[in-house]
Automatic annotation (TrEMBL):
The keyword Repeat does not apply. This is ATP-binding cassette domain-containing protein. The keyword Transport applies. The chain crosses the membrane at residues 55-76, 159-177, 249-266, 278-298. It is found in: Cell membrane. One of its GO terms (molecular function) is ABC-type oligopeptide transporter activity.
Length: 581
């Protein structure tokens, strides 16, 4: 975990100058606070016995000046600490998001969204708390404790040794209680999240629960979550109270020995009363800060279990990387060529085997095949979501792994089976295809995508919010917004992944009309769902077991009476009945 801790601190490195100023301010604050017991020592030993009023006034003035310096130093300390912690916390969060972007599609497919959100929220917040509270607190505690012990040693080395048994007694049980309190606190937080999630689920599912008469079943499940939270809360606060009790016990037990031995030293004139009072104040301050440092370190050790997930995350290497010196395409024509391409998500389960295909610029090619035959994988490889294990893919004669991501993605457009819409307005969702597009360009794209009419029928037209993931629009409307994005982006190559498979016949008719307009003059590589959508394509490629089984025009394949013919005639064998086109 030490490597994880040092990695966490690297986000403070750009602000080393601020860190030095923070330590300097902490030193001034600690010195000013620790000067007060010394002033009291002089007051008790010199001013009161000698009734030196002039010295008293000078001491009073000095105390006021000291307090002014203390307040000023605290202001600087707070300013430096706030700047350091917030900048480091911001840099950490940005770094995690940037790294998530570099991992790309491969990471998103293998890791659930909830797992990633937990990583970017819970774990990032845990490390940010280290910047905000634990690390500055540890520095301050060390600084104050070191100065306190130094002043105690200057007063009486023998009396200082008396505090060691008390601190060792604390250290005997303290770290264990601190660790258990932190771990149970984290467990309690997780249990509270689960209880809230179940409460939300129970409230949201009222209709289903009543329809199935499952209220008692759901109540028992909710009660189990509440019971788990209750047990966790009791354990957490028990350890928290025991932690405080252990700390106070060691304070006061050590103080008893300090009083006994201090009385003995005063009796022998080894120290003065003022020195003893000052020492006692230093003792309580030092013990409070030292035990606080132990608590701080223990809590940071617990945080490192969460930071370890981030540490492992940032060491994940992206499946697809951008070339250091990418080639440039002056004017994209749109020819797409696959040469002996093989790919497997798992080493022992190949998806594509020596797949070769040329899609001439401006042509339309459809991919047909059974589920698992590799159709969607071809599109993912074309967009360089993954790199092939063998072979290569070329755009206008240039291998796509030699192009920058910006060049490749600007040349290609995607219309997926499920369209993601942002929770903003219709206008902003269309403008997503080209953030610099004017309102006139947005409307022109919507008209071309057969979307203008339904948009104008919405309450606020183009400014109507579509809701989370476009929940306020139908499936056909969402697809037409996605096609409008493509019109405004104007890519030379368009990849269609079953863009109409989830639509009813009426919705499909509108979307199909928009697709026909979109495909004019562009290179199209499509995985379609219905035979009717690919009848007019220039070529249909039938995949089987990751290889090209047959290809040709629609009429040519029907004449061959092969896989496509059996599908069209409804005579497909049972194991082939799940063929999608």
């Amino acid at each position: 975990m030490l490597d994880v801790y040092w990695w966490s601190l690297t986000y403070l490195k750009p602000y080393l100058g601020t860190l030095v100023l923070l330590v300097a301010a902490m030193t001034v604050v600690s010195a000013a606070e620790l000067a007060v017991p010394k002033i009291m020592q002089v007051f008790i030993d010199t001013v009161i016995p000698g009734k030196k009023m002039k010295a008293f006034y000078w001491m009073l003035a000095g105390t006021v000046a000291l307090l002014a310096a203390l307040i000023a130093a605290q202001c600087f300390q707070n300013m430096f600490q706030r700047g350091l912690q917030e900048n480091a916390a911001r840099d950490l969060q940005r770094a995690m998001f940037r790294h998530l972007r570099t991992l790309g599609f491969a990471y998103a497919e293998r890791h659930p969204t909830g797992e990633t959100l937990s990583l970017l929220n819970t774990e990032v917040a845990a490390v940010q708390n280290m910047y905000r509270y634990h690390f500055p607190g540890m520095l301050n505690g060390f600084m104050f404790s070191a100065l306190s012990v130094a002043l105690m040693l200057s007063s009486s080395a023998r009396l200082t040794l008396i505090m060691l048994p008390g601190f060792l007694l604390y250290y005997l049980f303290g770290p264990y209680l601190e660790r258990q309190a932190s771990l149970n606190g984290k467990r309690m937080a997780n249990e509270r999240v689960e209880e809230n999630r179940k409460a939300y689920e129970s409230v949201s599912a009222q209709t289903e629960l009543r329809a199935y008469g499952a209220e008692r079943w759901d109540s028992e499940r909710y009660a189990a979550k509440v019971e788990a939270l209750n047990r966790s809360t009791i354990r957490t606060y028990w350890y928290a109270y025991m932690r405080g009790t252990n700390r106070r016990l060691t304070y006061y037990l050590g103080a008893v020995f300090v009083f006994i031995y201090g009385y003995h030293l005063i009796g022998k004139d080894a120290i003065t009363v003022g020195e003893f009072v000052a020492f006692l104040l230093y003792y309580f301050a030092a013990m409070h800060r030292l035990t606080g440092v132990v608590t701080n370190i223990t809590e940071q050790r617990v945080l490192m279990f969460q930071a370890k997930r981030l540490y492992d995350f940032v060491r994940l290497r992206p499946a697809v990387t951008e070339p250091d010196q990418p080639e440039e395409l002056q004017a994209v024509q749109g020819e797409l060529r696959f040469e002996e391409v093989s790919y497997a998500y798992n080493p022992d389960q190949p998806v594509l085997c020596e797949f070769s295909l040329t899609v001439p610029a401006g042509s339309r090619v459809a991919l047909v095949g059974a589920t698992g035959s590799g159709k969607s994988t071809v599109l993912k490889l074309a967009g360089r979501f993954y790199d092939p294990g063998e072979g290569r893919i070329l755009l206008d004669g240039v291998p796509i792994d030699r192009l920058s991501f910006d060049a490749l993605r600007s040349a290609m457009g995607y219309v997926f089976q499920e369209t993601y819409l942002f929770g903003s307005s219709v206008r902003e969702n269309i403008r997503f295809g080209d953030p610099e597009a004017s309102d006139e360009a947005v409307e022109a794209a919507a008209r071309a995508a057969c979307a203008h009419e339904f948009i104008m029928g919405l309450p606020d037209g183009y400014d109507t919010p579509v809701g989370e993931r476009g929940v306020r629009l139908s499936g056909g409307q969402k697809q037409r917004v996605a096609i409008a994005r493509m019109f405004i982006k104007q890519p030379r190559v368009i990849l269609l992944d079953e863009a109409t498979s989830a639509l009813d016949n009426e919705s499909e008719a509108g979307v199909q009309e928009a697709l026909v307009r979109l495909m004019r003059g562009r290179t199209i590589l499509a995985v379609a769902h219905r035979l009717s959508t690919i009848r007019d394509f220039d070529r249909i490629v039938v995949l089987q077991d990751g290889r090209v089984a047959e290809w040709g025009t629609y009429d040519e394949l029907l004449e061959k009476r092969g896989l496509l013919y059996r599908l069209a005639e409804g005579t497909t064998e049972p194991e082939e009945a799940i063929v999608h086109v």
